[in-house]
């Protein structure tokens, strides 16, 4: 019974974390929490910037 309860708690925490990531992505926030201007992988997150 304890395994089921702990599994439900972990699943709930995972659900809340994924929901928060989805909301942040929808608002346009960076998922990594860093500064995009100095990130070498910024094109992977935001696509290439057209000049």
Summarize the main sheet: none
Q: Which series of helices and strands comes N to C?
A: HH
Number of DSSP-assigned strands:
0
Helical content stands at 55-70%
Q: Estimate the mean pLDDT confidence.
A: 79
Strand content: under 5%
In whole angstroms, the N-to-C terminal distance is: 59 Å
Principal-axis shape equals elongated
Which regions are unreliable across 5 or more consecutive residues at pLDDT < 50? none
Secondary structure tally, helices: 2
Please identify the oligomeric state. single chain
- What would you report as the Rg, rounded to the nearest angstrom? 17 Å
Counting helices, strands and paired strands, the structural category is mainly alpha
Describe this structure in words.
With 51 residues, this protein is mainly α. It has one domain (2-46). The protein has two helices and no strands. The longest helix is centred in the first third of the chain and has 26 residues, at 2-27. The chain is elongated, with a radius of gyration of 17 Å. The termini are far apart.
Structure summarized in a few sentences:
Helix content is 61%, strand content 0%. It has helices at 2-27, 42-46.
């Amino acid at each position: 019974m304890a395994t089921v309860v702990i599994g439900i708690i972990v699943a709930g925490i995972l659900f809340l974390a994924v929901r928060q990531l989805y909301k942040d992505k929808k608002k346009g926030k960076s998922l990594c929490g860093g500064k995009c201007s100095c990130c070498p992988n910024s094109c992977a997150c935001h696509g290439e910037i057209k000049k």
